[in-house]
Amino acid sequence: MSESVTAEILTNHILDLARRQKRLDGRGPDDYRKASVEPGFASSADGSALARIGATTALCGVKLEPGKPYPDTPNAGTLTTNAELIPLSSPMFEPGPPHPRAIEVSRVVDRAIRAAETIDLTKLCVTAGEKCWTCFVDIHILDHSGNLIDAASLAALGALTHATVPNVRFGIGPADLPLEVNHFPVEVTFCRLGETLVVDPTVEEESAAHGRLTIATDERGEVVAMQKGLIGAFSPDDVKSLVDRAITHGDRLRRIARGS
Amino acid sequence: MGSVGAKEVPVLLGPDGRRIDGRKVDELRPIAITAGPLHQADGSAFVEWGQNKVMAAVYGPREVHPRHLQENNKAIVQCRYNMAAFSVDERKRPGLDRRSQEISKVIAEAFESVIFVEEYPRTSIDVYIEVLQANAGTRCAGVVAASVALADAGIPMVDLVPAVAVGKVGDAVVLDLKKEEDNFGSADLPMALVPQSGRLVLLQMEGHLSRDELARALDLGVVGCRKIYEVMKQALRDRYRTDGPGPAAEGMAA
């Protein structure tokens, strides 16, 4: 009970600050926490990256394995994205089958990668209808300090950008080749705190929020995926203004993920 | 979307600006809503929308199962969106796949945004959506059905929640995608509106839209939602009018 009372006091404090365009950690509504991407964290993977947004930490490992194309796409490789919200990263997470929250993170990250045509899957076909590469994008959340979707997406983009197709290990070709990445989708998440729309929410802000909106844009400045989450609502005008903010933040995060 | 190596792309937009089924870009598919077709549920609705057939039932407020999900200061809203194995061309494996679980989550959050949950502490409001026949836009049809079912169950809410998907085929932003447009178009943006506040409680998107196209899509969707809102209200009026056959809305239209 005392925990829920402190939570309520904190929530009221966060909302009170937001009314004055302020935040608990001293940021303004449009300030993103310091973000970084460290590629090659796990050398056992064919591509990996550790993404940090403030204290939030996500590790993505990409593995490519020979598989069979889906019957309806005989000329394309396959892509599978999975995010694990492991109990190590937060007292909120429990062991067991994937929680809808984890499924949402996976699917929203997957949606942006797919819609932006990040990887040309036809290039991952080895023999039409017979053999292709299956690209597994596995994301582990290590520290849930808020804004998991952005951290997961940044880690995934970092890992894909630095991945290798392991031709030699599976006897498919004479040399390993870099995985070709054509587009660079980045997700940017906002929360509504009262009437203030803040970017990159912390875990405390998420629990105080009246709705969350994630907008994924690519390097062409196009919107490739969106997801509204949590309890709350956004007006169409809110969404339009957030798209512009997502494009600006996305450009900066993209450079970080690509290491340029 | 994601039509890698897919079959031949049909002509989605004719030179006369008409769509594959003859609709204009801002035209909805025919929609019919029956409120209260089920007898055991506290509230129910059946929606036929284009080739979609979706049934929704609401139970509650009732005891929470499992108990540990119970909240002391409010009701929880649980949603199960499920597609029948026979609802799509190729048989779908029965049960909740990851797509269904994600849709269930965003729909539950959408309704919890409008229901006065603080009125019913320690209870659960359970929303069941069964897609019996699918032709794109099933989550929107599900939201429309469930919203009418919630009203039919007498659950106090800010407003009904109409929903529709907007998308892009060719260069045109179009309202209410049907299957071919969803499969071969270049964007899909399902949304649900609270007409009273003008705010969106469900919003998803996949594909490619410029910022200007996205703005147009949102405006088109809001107009579409307001049309569906009228159909939803009429369905409830028909169910509860006192001069007619009364609340026994037997069965569903064939």
Short account of what is shown:
The complex is a heterodimer of chains A (260) and B (254). Chain A is α+β, with helices and mostly antiparallel strands. Chain A is 30% helix and 30% strand.
Question: Any key phrases for this structure?
Answer:
heterodimer; A: 260 residues; alpha+beta; Ribosomal Protein S5, domain 2; four-stranded antiparallel beta sheet; 30% strand; B: 254 residues; five-stranded mixed beta sheet; 4 helices
Strand order of the largest sheet of chain B: 1-2-3-5-4
Number of strand segments of chain A: 12
CATH class of chain B: Alpha Beta
What is the annotated CATH architecture of chain B? 2-Layer Sandwich
Unreliable runs of chain A = none
- The named CATH superfamily of chain B: GHMP Kinase, N-terminal domain
> At the third CATH level, what is the topology name of chain A?
Ribosomal Protein S5, domain 2
Mean pLDDT of chain B, to the nearest integer, reads 92
What amount of the residues of chain B lies in strands?
25-35%
| Strand-residue proportion of chain A | 25-35%
Largest interface, counted by CB within 8 Å of the partner chain's CB: A-B, 42 and 38 residues
Give, in order, the helices and strands of chain A: HEEEEHEEHEEEEHEEH
Give the CATH topology of chain B.
Ribosomal Protein S5, domain 2
Structural class of chain B: alpha+beta
**DSSP helix count of chain A?**
5
- Oligomerization: heterodimer
Q: State the CATH superfamily name of chain A.
A: GHMP Kinase, N-terminal domain
Helix content of chain A: 25-40%
Main sheet characteristics of chain A: 6 strands, mixed
